[in-house]
Design goal:
The chain is an alpha+beta fold. It is built from 2 helices and 2 strands, in the order αββα. Strands 1-2 form a two-stranded antiparallel sheet. It is extended and about 50 Å long. The relative contact order is 0.13. The model has no long low-confidence stretch (mean pLDDT about 85).
């Protein structure tokens, strides 16, 4: 029997990596009340990588420091 489940944990990292590789050129639009901010999926993933590196370098010790909404 074949399973339709992925063979890896569905984490934020996995979602961003998949999005970068498959939809890197697609646009992400963030509504900010009166205006919209636009970036490619690849740009969003790059920013997330930079934030993760900065947090890891600051030594929070595994504590939660943010949420994904």
């Amino acid at each position: 029997m074949l399973s339709t489940m992925q063979d890896f944990p569905l984490t934020i990292t996995a979602i961003l990596r998949h999005g970068r590789s498959v939809f890197g050129g697609s646009e992400v639009v963030t509504f900010e009340g009166g205006s919209c901010r636009r970036a490619s999926f690849a740009q969003v993933a790059e920013r997330a990588d930079r934030l993760a590196s900065a947090l890891a370098g600051s030594g929070p010790g595994g504590d939660r420091v943010g949420t994904f909404a």
